[in-house]
Structure formats: C-alpha cells, structure tokens
Amino acid sequence: MKLPCCQNVWMQVVSLVSGIILILGIGGCEESFVPDTIQTEQEIVVEGYIEAGEQRNPTFVLLTKSIPFFSTISVEQFSSLFVRGAKVTVSDGVKEVVLQELCLNQLPEDLKKEVYKVLGFNPDSAAVDLCVYADIFEQIKPEFGREYKLRVESEGKVLNASTTIPDSVGLRKFRFMEPPGAPRDSLAQLMVTISDPQGQRNYYRYFTSTSRQPGLIAPFNSVTDDAIFDGKEFEFPLQRAQRRGSGFNPDAFGLFYRGDTISIKWCTIDQAHFDFWNTRDFSANSGGPFASYTRIATNIEGGLGIWGGYAVARYNLIVPEK
C-alpha cells in the first residue's frame, strides 16, 4: 500500500487503523489489522485536470512517486519524489499535444505565485520546488462532451488514462437565509437551485472562495451525484469550504459572513472522476480509532491518481448585510 506524495490529492490514499480494532460481538475481542500490501513497488502518482467553461484553468499534470504507508518524509525527500523528465501527452482524438515541463523555482517570482495559486498551493508556505507539466500555449481547446486521453512515459513505464468533460449543468437560483438554530446576525446560509437533466446520472463537484479566505477551496465533502434529485429542480444548502487545519468554529461552519464577496466554482464531472473524489473524501473524513482503511478509486492504468475533466461554471455573489 502506498502513500503518494502529491500535496493536493494523495495526502491520504488510505485511512488505516494502526492500533487496535474493536470488534463488537458476544464476549468482544481485540485484533490488530495490518494490510498485506504495505511494502510494494514504488508507483507513479498522477494528478491531472482538463477544464472547459468559464475562467477555466490551463490543462496540467503533476507527477509524483508513492512511498510506503508507514513512512516519515522531510521537505528535501518530498521534493525528490516529483517526477521530472517525463513525456506527458494529451490527445482529443484529433490533436496530440506534449505538455511542457515547468519547475516553478525556475520561474520569475510573480509568475511562480500565480502558478501556485492555480494549483491550489499557498505561495507563502510552499517551499518545495514543484514541477508541473502544462499546456501553457493552450494547444488543446477543451470542449464539453468530449473525451481526452492522457499518456505518461517515464522511467520505462507507460501510464494511460481517459476522462470526459461532460455537458455543463449549472446552478440556477441563489438566495441567502437566516441560519437554522440560534440567531447569528453576522452569518447567512446560501441556498442554491439546480435543474438536473432527466434520464442520465450526473455528478458534481464544487469549490468556494470568499473575500476573507481567498483562493478556491473544495469542501470536506466536495462531490455529489443526482441519485435523489434526478430530473428535478432541486434546492439545497451550499456550504462554505474551509481549509483543513485552519481551526473549526461549529457556529460558523458552512455559513457565509454577511457583507463578504464570494465566488463559486461549480463543476460537472464524469463517474470515474466522481468515484475518485468520493473515496478520497470518505478516507480523509473518516479518521479515528475505529476507522477502516479505504482504497482510493483511480482511473490511471499502470499507476495511481486521477486524470479528470471539469465542465466549469463560475458565480460571483455578495452576501447581503441583512
């Protein structure tokens, strides 16, 4: 079993009980559980995205190497796990483009900070020399409803993956309301409405940012499917995302501060992309002494990780004072 080292995605490939699992039953007993795949061959981990729609990010891929589950790692070792010198190719079925390798410490400071923000890293704390493969000249023109294939050649290995950018299903209505429970004058709950197409399974992921917390962040549970609202106009609360480790305030969790400007990135994704984030979110949120370990779903043949398409819709709102 591997713990890949890509900071955004594979912070946890599994959630593991390292001590005692309590088995409930007559008489009860204790059993130590250790998976049988702790020591295996090091694999390449992929984190790559291709987006179509409003204010889309450029197509990019991060490559790292996995490490054994029971490992400690320094900043220097972390840097060494980025895969350099690979050939990374993206194809739309007609055009094939080789992505350009960019090691961020070689870029001018202003440009480096912008790239860090696109990749979801804090430019003030990211000391690692990240290397990314990107379509910086936008030779691939992402489109809704189209399939895109990824091929990675590195260290004698070949990895393949395929993803689809679905048709975009955006949000339709927005309204702010008083949060449930005790009155909180400074906070509001955001309700959004979606008109889900009938007759097909749809999958969604979203991010939020606010003027208090800039930079788009995915919530702890970032994906959903339309199993309960297929083909319906459906209203639901959309939670404000929060960075892990930033402190937890139960009175404000998921709510927006009045007077703030907020941005929502709402994405339609395919099933394989949904399965990856669904298992990853479950693993990240199910820690504790009685948690079981979870294998993260992957669509990478010959490796681990995700090659995912996003159909992006963007919305900017101001939370009313009252």
What does the model show?
The protein is mainly beta. It folds into two domains: 1-165, no CATH class; 166-269 and 303-322, Immunoglobulin-like. It is built from three helices and 19 strands. Strands 1, 4, 5, 8, 9, 14, 15, 18 and 19 form a nine-stranded mixed sheet that branches. The longest helix has 15 residues, at 271-285. The model is unreliable at 1-33 (pLDDT under 50).
In short:
10% of the residues lie in helices and 38% in strands. The chain contains three helices and 19 strands.
Core attributes:
nine-stranded mixed beta sheet; mainly beta; single chain; 322 residues; 3 helices; four-stranded antiparallel beta sheet; 2 domains; Immunoglobulin-like
Question: Can you lay out the helices and strands and say which pair or pack?
Answer:
Blueprint: E1 2-4, E2 21-23, E3 29-31, E4 44-53, E5 60-68, H1 75-80, E6 87-91, E7 96-98, E8 100-103, H2 109-119, E9 131-134, E10 146-154, E11 157-165, E12 171-177, E13 187-195, E14 203-210, E15 223-225, E16 233-238, E17 256-257, E18 261-269, H3 271-285, E19 304-318
Parallel strand pairs: 4-19
Antiparallel strand pairs: 1-5, 2-3, 4-5, 5-9, 6-7, 6-10, 8-9, 10-11, 12-13, 13-16, 13-17, 14-15, 14-18, 18-19
